[in-house]
Specification:
The protein starts with a helix and ends in an 8-residue tail after the last helix. With 243 residues, it is an alpha/beta fold. The chain has one domain: Decaprenyl diphosphate synthase-like (Undecaprenyl pyrophosphate synthetase, 3-Layer(aba) Sandwich). A six-stranded parallel β-sheet has the order 3-4-2-1-5-6, with helices on both faces. It is globular. Helix 3 packs parallel to helix 4 and helix 4 runs parallel beside helix 6. The structure holds farnesyl diphosphate. The site of farnesyl diphosphate has 19 residues, from helix 2, helix 3, strand 2 and helix 4.
Length: 243
Amino acid sequence: MTQEEKQGIVLPRHIGIIMDGNGRWAKSRGLERSEGHKAGANAFRTICNYGADLGIEYMTFYAFSTENWKRPPKEVRAIMKLFRDYLDEANSRESENEKRGLRFHLIGEKSGLPSDIVSRMEKLERGTADKKVMTVNLAINYGGRDEILHSVKEIAKEIKSGKMNPGSITEDDISSRLFTAGQPDPDLIIRPSGEYRLSNFMIWQAAYSEFWYSDIMWPDFTPDDLDRAILDYCRRNRRYGGV
Ligand code: FPP
């Protein structure tokens, strides 16, 4: 994005991205699906760093859903290896993220993940807790319904212990018990690969999000595409149900 384009626009504070199309990208090149995920992980690195350079405050990347465990074990193993490699890289002092001041946060059910991935993730969360440039939510073993269920269970426990009253539950009470507690809702949600679904991604938080779709497969998604999505978003007029 040029300085000229950046002037006079209000950037979205929070962008969510559904990283889709890795498998088709690989198939169209006669490669294994795992090669598509590897290329997708590289696109993630590029877009994450570019978002921080632009001045986006929060980015959420949908990397693995609660439904993705249904994939062939070989593919799941390959994706888990990409997570391990990335987390090791991000945990290193010399990483690009470290230089940029990225803060990491896992959104997803830790209990269903391999313990070594959880410990790498927790190390990264602890190690970047004081960073302020951009918060990166990694949605791994994430499902929007599961997240709402998690919040509702917390509220039920507090009602049972007498700390909360059912009649006075507010939307904020639900929001503040989601994995994204304290963060603004996504202003813009991007889904490449020609699919037009939310696929259980941030379904509570997306109530007023703007959507941007494109036919590009995720591994081919570039900073120019992110610019296009942001500039389109900036031209829209958000009314939040008003006139
Ligand atoms: C969806 O594409 C993609 C996934 C389920 C995995 C996404 C994972 C990555 C991009 C790697 C992320 C890595 C890090 C380090 C965060 P698909 O396989 O459903 O594609 P298809 O619809 O073309 O088959």
